[in-house]
Write a structure and sequence with these properties.
Blueprint (H helix, E strand, L loop, with lengths): L21 E6 L11 E16 L7 H9 L4 E11 L5 H19 L6 E8 L6 H13 L5 H7 L8 E9 L2 E10 L12 E6 L5 H13 L16 E6 L16 H21 L7 E9 L2 H12 L2 H8 L5 H10 L10 E4 L2 E5 L2 E2 L6 H7 L3 E7 L5 E8 L3 H8 L4
Parallel strand pairs: 3-4, 7-8, 9-13
Antiparallel strand pairs: 1-2, 2-3, 2-8, 5-6, 6-7, 9-14, 10-11, 10-13, 11-12
Helix pairs in contact: 2-3, 5-6, 7-9
Length: 409
Amino acid sequence: MSETISPLAPAHMPELPEISGVTCRIAQARYKEWDRCDLTYIELSEGTSVAGVLTQSKCPSTEVEWCRKALPGGKARALVVNAGNANAFTGARGMEAVQRILSLASDHLNCTEEEIFVSSTGVIGEPLPKDRAEAGLRAAFTDVACSWKEAAATIMTTDTFPKMATTSAVVGGKTVHLNGIIKGSGMIAPDMATMLGYVFTDVTVDAGLLQKMLNAATAKSFNCITVDSDTSTSDTVLAFATGQNDAPALNSIDDPGADAFQAALGDLCMQLAHLVVRDGEGASKFIEIAVTGAQSDESAKRIALSVANSPLVKTAIAGEDANWGRVVMAVGKAGEPADRDKLSIGFGGITVARDGLVVPDYDEAPVAEHLKGDVIDISVDIGIGDGKAIVWTCDLTHGYISINADYRS
């Protein structure tokens, strides 16, 4: 956790309402030599349904493997999040710590282990100290409930500010609430996306439907962000629906209010995803890349990500250099259908190149002025079809190198 807050951090964070059926507690497990809470325990009411989207990394953490095993059960009673240690690539010793957590939490709540979900984040390759995990969890069982902001702060690692969001929807004439907390700053790339994110709602949602809705929301949010093109071993987004609201249950996408809830979930996930990019390690610019005119939406997304992940594009933006040739390069290397002589590129709504050539009488001054801001818009029209996509990233500065060079110290 950095002492310097990202310049892209929101001026104010929202006050999150209570979600009936959700109780947050935090404790000091002391996974690292720091004077802060690093274990989050969130208790959920009986009957809570759960859905999740997990990393596609072929080297996942033990916690990801456990969540993947437990998710088909569709029920949850608790979430435990450890910060400072990823417990990834730790073999049997890593599973021993997770098993200790599962046993303690399930005994405490008198539920099955498959109703306990666990995440860990931090350094890869160091087993989670099971004795510290046990002590921290026992302390959390008896501690007083904490605020959403305290829970969001406790799951942080290199993050510079707690990330949380809230929204609501009307289902059957009743207002239902959705809260989310998330952590993520580096090792961010869409393969689900690289972070730990948790969504909580008080409406009753069938687990299968919640999974479909979360998949759809993730596709347009968490899977459309990138900081450094690196996918974590621990990526996890979990959604919990406690069913403590009087609103009618949602069992099908055709149920009244399901579309409103889907829209609210999508909005919440988008808010959280943008907060991760705004806290990209060393970031000074928030960048939106919109691609149109591609052969397909999938092709447009791959092109947009090629631009977003290009170190040359990202460093040019950091240096406020209107070097549109680097965008051309990134489009060309994407491996997607494109026609040089139909390509158009713009910055901040100003077209700089059209039909494969710089526009006549191009004036770089307004583009340079746009690049001085902290929100940058890049548009690319491929000119060959109807495919479109938007992704979000940040610039690449020396701060990223400094943070990651010192990560384990």
